[in-house]
Amino acid sequence: MQPGFRKRLVDWYAADARSLPWRSKPAPYRVWVSEIMLQQTRVEAVRDYFKRFMKRFPSLRSLAGAELDDVLEAWSGLGYYRRARMLHAAALQIAERHNGRFPRERADVLALPGVGKYTAGAILSIAFNQPEPIVDGNVERVFARLQRIPGDVKAKAGSERVWQLATGHVQRGADEGHSPSTLNQALMELGALVCTPQNPNCEACPVRRDCGAHRHGETGRYPVLPKRARAKARRYLFAAITDEAGRLLLVRRPEGDKGSLLPGGMWELPHVEWAGSKEEAVGRLAENLGGEIATMGKPLARNHAIMNFKLTLNVQRCRARQALNPLAEHRWLPPAAAENAAIASATRKLLRAIS
Fold it and tell me: How confident is the model at residue 2 (pLDDT cuts 50, 70, 90)?
């Protein structure tokens, strides 16, 4: 791309960029937290979480000094909870190895838990204004259309081509006097607002004269992406067990437990996969809970999606016929406290269904 391409792009960004909470004060800690939150998550879903997280953990040191359960609680509902664990682990590492100051060297940033080359590039370019490339889905799409990249941009050859283009863009732009932070954010913003997956608004695009796909009337052909696999169906039965005081039983499976598609390490209602009869599923629940349970009424069903799965979540009100001794870590909580615990969005959906 010629210098005029970057000039038009940064001028457009200065005029039309969204006002986002992490852009107002692009300090390394804020940029890092926002980028971890934005992984596989829409901007609109992150806005309020970011504000609340910053209020609760206003500095890297406050995050490093927090209990992991408190971090997971603040993350509750945002999904992909491994990100929160890695964020906390990285904060501890920065506190121990870098005296609580976010590192500026690429190797040190890449050594942090949960940080790959995309996140490292985002932090180094946005927070430290270093000419490092960033490639996310928006950038892939923009370059695929600009250059009419013929292959799958997520496959090895296509990905390498996009990273090469992104590197050249930010490094040549820096030589031309443009801020790497602005160059990278402008490219991502273009993909988010104008060069969208469906029906891109080419008439509003500041660089449409540079776009091969627009010039040939082929924006619908790019980027080339692999076909999505058909979503698989799973069904679960959850037990909403209350004691005499009206408290709910929550359990916590270890992180990495493969007994459910719900994330391990979070508080949840006891549940099992429901493949046979309801009686058989209730029996397995009772076995896991170390006692006998009686069902009350019919289960309520809610739909939920996790990765490439369509889940049917059935929540059954129950009572214990005897003292329970669950195999997993457990606690009894009032319903309001349960909803404020470190729970996944699927659990929150079920708690609201029975409230």
Answer: confident
